[in-house]
Design brief:
- The structure holds 2 protein chains of 2 kinds.
- Chain A is α/β, with parallel strands linked by helices.
- Chain A has 3 domains: 175 residues, FAD/NAD(P)-binding domain, CATH 3.50.50; 117 residues, FAD/NAD(P)-binding domain (3-Layer(bba) Sandwich); 59 residues, no CATH class.
- Chain A is 22% helix and 31% strand.
- In chain A, helix 1 runs parallel beside helix 7.
- In chain B, strand 2 and strand 3 form a beta hairpin.
- Chain B has a single domain, classed as 2-Layer Sandwich (Alpha-Beta Plaits).
- The longest helix of chain B is centred in the last third of the chain and has 12 residues.
- The chains are: A alpha/beta, B alpha+beta.
- Chains A and B meet through helix 1, helix 7, strand 23 and helix 8 of A and helix 1, helix 2 and strand 4 of B.
């Protein structure tokens, strides 16, 4: 066991990364005092569901609910960590209290990047955001979504599906930087067929004119709507660590076991971990889970714990299409069809990257994920 | 305790199988199969861990 005494562990962050870390600490045999701090008043929930099922699910408001935690931690919810003294091993909270620890897990995630300070700018990151948007959608407002990534497209899809007029503003073709041109084209076709208005632009900003918020494009064109929503990336919540020396360029760099130092782990959207492409943040559900499992093991067992061997698993649902991908995105060129063919699925596809790795993608295609992983390896 | 699957919700992400391969697996069609539904002790903890990583909240342990 590394780092001396192990009686008290503090987990800062109650998303899936913090929750998984707490669960895994128990599985790894830690039976001491465990405290988990979450700045939202809610128990941990499924963030991927917020922009998918939760926007659509009629009266069923449970599609984001995770089963109750079983880690037996003291849960401090609705409380924010404001500072850390890594030498004295103390976390300070915004209610004035201080938590001493022997081991610490940093899992404060990230927040939506905003384009303005205008209160009219909607973003969708947390459960409260999703419930607020859902409430507004009941009146079938017109919606402008700024951001052509997976989140912006999912939200646009959800708003369209409940009957709103939706315009999506994208820097270039939606999803092209995330998925590559082949799959982006499949999704854009489906979106246009369902009635999405697509505006491609070099840049967009939000401004207020005569009391009304609006979107202004780089050519001066103006878009107005009942709801202006931006989905333009995320910003790691690391400001509270600014004086600790544990951050670099706004992220927390970690080793292959998720450790910043022997007594401090960082997991989830705020951590940059070693990948074949260098230190990277991979802000995905499956990434948060894998990082948290590895790091919790390392906090208890040190170098005897296995390092992270993460293979990206990504999925999205939008415009009637369901996509599951194993392997590194984006994808160049056309796929080899393992099953099915072009035209929007059902299809099982694979690509080979130049570096010897492979990617498998299932489009409207049910497949056991272990088989999807094997298909990705076969493509390598 | 019993593992309860809400089948219409299940999208076959398979994260539950990765968490608790002793208790459940996806079949060749990508449909989740509960190999055991009644669980106790360590298996119940494992089942709960599987339920908590499901991003579409398709599993309950009650």
């Amino acid at each position: 066991m590394s780092g001396g005494t192990l009686n008290r562990v503090v987990v800062v962050g109650n998303g899936i990364a913090g929750l998984t870390a707490a669960d895994t600490l128990r599985e790894a045999g830690f039976d001491g005092e465990l405290t988990i701090v979450g700045d939202e008043p809610h128990p941990a929930y499924s963030r991927p569901a917020l922009s998918k099922a939760l926007l659509l699910d009629g009266d069923d408001m449970s599609s984001h609910e995770l089963p109750p935690a079983g880690h037996g931690a003291t849960e401090l919810l609705g409380v924010r960590a404001t500072g850390l003294d890594p030498e004295r091993r103390i976390v300070t909270l915004d209610d004035g209290s201080a938590l001493p620890y022997d081991r610490l897990v940093l899992a404060t995630g990230s927040r939506a990047r905003r384009l303005s300070e205008l209160p009219e700018e909607f973003t969708l990151r947390g459960l409260d955001d999703a419930l607020r948007l859902r409430g507004r959608l009941a009146d079938r407002p017109s919606v402008v979504v700024v951001g052509g990534g997976a989140l912006g497209m999912e939200i646009a899809s959800g708003c369209l599906a409940v009957g709103c007029r939706v315009t999506l503003v994208s820097q270039g073709v939606p999803l092209i930087t995330q998925l590559g041109p082949y799959l982006a084209d499949v999704f854009v076709k489906a979106a246009l067929d369902l009635g999405l208005t697509l505006v491609e632009t070099g840049s967009a900003r939000l401004e207020q004119r005569a009391g009304e918020a609006r979107v202004v494009l780089d050519d001066g064109a103006v878009l107005e709507a009942d709801i202006l929503l931006t989905a333009v990336g995320d910003v790691p919540n690391t400001e509270w660590l600014a004086d600790t020396g544990l951050t670099a360029k706004g992220v927390v760099p970690v080793d292959s076991r998720g450790l910043v130092r022997p007594d401090v782990a960082a997991v989830g959207d705020l951590a940059a971990f070693p990948t074949p492409h260098g230190l990277r943040r991979v802000p995905l559900w499956s990434s948060a889970i894998e990082q948290a499992k590895v790091a919790a093991g390392a906090l208890v067992h040190g170098d005897d714990a296995p390092p992270l061997r993460f293979q990206t698993y990504f999925w999205t649902e939008q415009f009637g299409l369901s996509l599951k991908v194993v392997g590194d995105l984006p994808l160049d060129g056309e796929p080899t069809y393992v099953d099915g063919g072009p035209g929007g699925g059902p299809a099982l596809m694979r690509w080979s990257h130049g570096d010897g790795t492979g990617v498998a993608a299932a489009l409207n295609y049910r497949i056991p994920i272990p088989r999807l992983r094997r298909t990705a390896q076969a493509a390598a | 305790m019993k593992i309860v699957l809400d089948r219409p919700r299940c999208e076959g992400h398979g994260l539950c199988e990765e968490a608790a391969p002793q208790l459940m697996h996806l079949d060749d069609e990508g449909e989740l199969v509960l190999d055991r539904e009644d669980v106790d002790g360590a298996d119940a903890a494992l089942a709960k861990a599987a339920a908590r990583v499901c991003p579409v909240a398709a599993l309950r342990v009650a």
